[in-house]
Amino acid sequence: MEAAPDIPAETLRMLYTTMVRLRKFEEKVAQLVSSPKEINTPCHLYIGQEAVATGVCSALRKDDYVYSTHRSHGHYLAKGGDMNLLMAELYGKQTGCSRGKGGSMHIASPQMGLPGSSAIVAGTIPIAVGTALAFSIKKKEAVAVAFFGDGAVH
Asked: 68 has which bridge partners?
């Protein structure tokens, strides 16, 4: 049985590699959060959701915007974020992707298309809609994606 006959093998490898990268990163974070005197910021892991960010972000360009949730690590990494900068952020270092001010739940990296993350369930939806409207008004060929969190739709 062919899994995906219309998707090139190289694309499938890239998607799989991204998912594994996200999982391994989160497993390491989980280990560090449970270690005394390591990561002290509250962390909401993205384990089990790797395919969502990987699939969505693989279809995006650098100038497309992603608005993330309190489980922002996977979105940041799938959008092309630097793993070392993210880890520095989780340690609260100024060298982090959000200069050590975002912690785990409020990752921001506007230069790579992640202007911010919100811990408010579904709070990203109106922000992404406003961004999409601004893109449309400016005739910019970009999209805005809202990840809106587990439990947002019932």
From this structure: 117
